Amino acid sequence: ENLLELVQTGEEGIILKDGYRICLVGAPNVGKSSIFNSFLESERAIVTPIPGTTRDYLEEAISLQGYLIKIYDTAGLRKTNNIAEKAGIERSYQIIRNSHKVLFIIDGQENKAELQKLEKIISPRHILKVLNKSDILDDSIKENFRKKGYIECSAIKENGLQKIKKAILDEIEITPAQLDAGLLNNTRQIAAANKAATAMKKAIDSFQQNMGAEFTAFDLKEASIALEEIIGKITNDDILNNIFSNFCVGK
Questions:
Q1: Do the beta carbons of residue 92 and residue 57 sit within 8 Å?
Q2: What is the CATH code for 19-173?
Q3: Pairing mode, if any, of strands 20-26 and 67-73?
Q4: Helices (H), strands (E): how many in the chain?
Q5: Cα separations (Å) of 19 from 12, 16, 43, 99, 185?
Q6: Which of 178, 179, 153 shows the shortest CA–CA distance to 166?
Q7: What integer pLDDT is reported at residue 72 of this predicted model?
Q8: Would you state the pLDDT for residue 131?
Q9: Which of 50, 58, 75, 96 has the largest count of CB atoms under 10 Å?
Q10: How far is Cα 27 from Cα 94, in angstroms, rounded to an integer?
Q11: 188 with 64: CB under 8 angstroms?
């Protein structure tokens, strides 16, 4: 049970070590680059009223209450005959697939087709729907989108991203208890912990079913080897011999 709980910490550990990846997605001119710049508190991305200004993705890192956040500003999603813009849009979809959270941004014009396409690429639970330019939209429009699960923001207003930042922190915040208990922080450790948990379950099952001490010993050895991959050697043949000193292991 403790091993399974440890496995479940894997995603949090990797986020703590490598950062939480956020991708800004939406049609051209909905304000993705403005939101990107607002996160960074600098003019990193070029902002113009011309659709297709961002043709390749931009990547930057920020600290949000001590958490490493990697933000990607992507090319506006639309149909285009421009070869360079097409390549940028394809890269956008690659980044979307590898992101922890995708901010799907609109500016008052609903984009159902693109949202549905996005939901086929990643799970809806990884999508945060954002209504940008809330400072210039009518209250009736904002209320309509609130009912559809959108959160409001204004990239040009001071503290205009507070709701987005809160939603991100609610998603990734790691409690002191989790830190004290320890976190796995790479895929190798997670795979090893999974292997150890599986072997331990087999050992318990074989013992309870009286399958023979040699089967239980084999599964415990497998669990031990897997655990060694995480924290180093923790057992040896002498310990296993001591565990099964009262058993008669068949040849």
A1: yes
A2: 3.40.50.300
A3: parallel
A4: 11, 6
A5: 10, 6, 22, 11, 11
A6: 153
A7: 92
A8: 93
A9: 75
A10: 17
A11: no
Token pair belonging to 91: 């890269």
Show me where the domains of the chain are located: 19-173, 186-243
pLDDT of residue 176: 57
Please classify residue 72 by burial: count the beta carbons closer than 10 Å to its beta carbon, then call 0-12 exposed, 13-18 middle and 19+ buried.
buried
pLDDT of residue 103: 94
From the number of C-beta atoms within 10 Å of its C-beta (0-12, 13-18, 19+), residue 63 rates as exposed
What is the distance between the alpha carbons of residues 73 and 190, in angstroms, rounded to a whole number?
30
List the chain residues with pLDDT less than 50. Answer: 46-54, 235-236, 238-239, 251
Which of 156, 133, 160 is closest to 145 using CA atoms?
Answer: 133
Residue with tokens 């310990």: 239
Helix (H) or strand (E) holding 88: helix 83-97
Read off the tokens for 206: 């074989």
Collapsing DSSP to helix, strand or coil, 201 comes out as helix
CB under 8 A, 24+ apart: contacts of 192-196? 192/226, 192/227, 192/229, 192/230, 193/3, 193/6, 193/7, 193/10, 193/226, 193/227, 193/230, 194/7, 195/222, 195/223, 195/226, 196/3, 196/222, 196/223, 196/226, 196/227, 196/230
Token pair 């318990």 is found at 204
CA-based nearest residue to 222, from 202, 208, 239: 202
